[in-house]
Amino acid sequence: MSEKLQAIRGMRDILPEESVRWQCVERKIIQVLDRYGYQEIRLPILEKTELFARSIGEQTDIVAKEMYSFEDRNGDSLTLRPEGTAGCVRAGLEHGLFYNQTQRLWYMGPMFRHERPQKGRQRQFHQIGVEAFGFDGPDIDAELIILSARLWRELGIKDITLQLNSLGTLQARSKYREILIDYFLKHEEQLDEDSRRRLQTNPLRILDSKNPELQGLINSAPAIKDHLDTESEEHFDQLLHMLNEAGIEYEINPRLVRGLDYYGQTVFEWVTDQLGAQGAICAGGRYNGLIEHFGGKSVPAFGFALGMERLMALIKTNGNDIERQPLHAYLILSAEEEVIAAGLKLAELLRDQLPHLRLTTHCGGGSFKSQFKRADKSGALFGLILGSEEVENQTVGLKSLRDKSEQETIPWGNIGKILAKNIQ
Ligand code: ATP
Ligand code: MG
Questions:
Q1: Read out DSSP for 248-317?
Q2: Which of 61, 125, 275, 325 has its CA 20 to 30 A from that of 409?
């Protein structure tokens, strides 16, 4: 017996009922990005494994245990992208996009991480990422945070909070790292296994631990804000001032560190308490060191990525669910070959006249009765009915499917005008 075919664990289909909601949200987001002057960059889903290892960091959870990597037929190690920034930077360097110019870019699409699937956490998920290159001042940090706040506003989302922190420059951060290691070493017996491992590899991530038994220890740990360099301190103060002026509320979270190695200075996350444990909707920050690290000249960079699955779930809990747009008309045809040909032609005439018309032509034959049932089920506002007599007279029957009014006979030349009056 053959095994039942199923999608891979942690990878979901998005069925039509849901995809219309996705399209609507994506359209709104793209519109906002366009209004701020951000342009789309389309990137491959596969990259060389080395790209992620070098940019995200060997010691991060993503690179150490979450990547989908494999050898292709040439023996090259490739990886399904776990995030978009690395590919975006690679493309920018490859095409000289950072040379003497600034860039405001966005991308969207699937990302892959081999994590434990649970509510709000999948192995294939979708992100919209936004990146700005070539700006080192806090103004671009503010612009992107203000832009993200507009997204939530325009999507009708309320239960979302902005958390902010500064990690300092890479130098300040590495000094702080030593201080933190010293502190946790003094209390090593209280650490769990995960944190013990991180102590050697990525001690800042201990601050991000979700283990309730560690919270006391973490709360008393030296805070990064007391070890910031002056440059980062000024940068952060200016950012806070700009956000205050723009009326953006925030919380400073001294334990916000982010999972990727290449962040420094500003980091931020938009979180909600509406979705259980997976509360981070959108996260990002400044990563000035990355491009230089790839062998380019130094180019400051700031960006964020939002998780589409969590965003869609939050929109639902906020009660702003998007209604499916119904069909305007369903064309019902009798079975003669000539009528079918005429029906397809009439449908094209109407689509030429009315670019916003949503019209489905019945295909596959069947009685008028069964076609009416389909038309009704489709949610269409009107049935258009075509038989051989109508074709001969160049008319079409028009029947509202949403009230009991009588069917009318309309000349082909008038049907477009009548439909136009009844659709938005
Ligand atoms: P988390 O702490 O929840 O694991 P992260 O810090 O790993 O998140 P980022 O790499 O910053 O996440 O990705 C940005 C956003 O992408 C997250 O805020 C989240 O909304 C979404 N995201 C990340 N991983 C997943 C996943 N496995 N499934 C669904 N969405 C995800
Ligand atoms: Mg993660």
A1: ---EE-TT---SSTT--SEEEEEE-SSSTT--EEEEEEE-TTHHHHTTS----EEEEEEEHHHHHHHHHH
A2: 325
Which is nearest to 259 in space by CA: 319, 185, 209? 209
Over residues 41-52, the mean pLDDT reads: 97
Q: Nearest 5 degrees, angle CA 388-CA 393-CA 396?
A: 70
Domains of the chain, by residue range, sit at 16-169+229-317, 329-420
Strand-pair partners of 330: 360, 383
Number of C-alpha atoms within 13 angstroms, CB side, residue 202? Answer: 21
Q: Residues lining ligand 1, judged by CB closer than 6 Å?
A: 83, 113, 115, 120-122, 125, 127, 259, 278, 280-283, 305, 307, 309-310
Architecture of domain 16-169+229-317: 2-Layer Sandwich (3.30)
Instruction: Give the pLDDT score at 197.
Output: 85
pLDDT at 199 over 90: no
Q: CA geometry: angle at 208 spanning 205 and 209, to 5°?
A: 100
Smallest-distance ligand from the CA of 119: 1
Task: Provide the 8-state DSSP code for 414.
Answer: H
Is the predicted pLDDT of residue 265 greater than 60, yes or no? yes
Rounded to whole angstroms, the Cα distance separating 288 from 169 reads 9
Architecture of domain 329-420: 3-Layer(aba) Sandwich (3.40)
What is the distance between the alpha carbons of residues 396 and 178, in angstroms, rounded to a whole number? 80
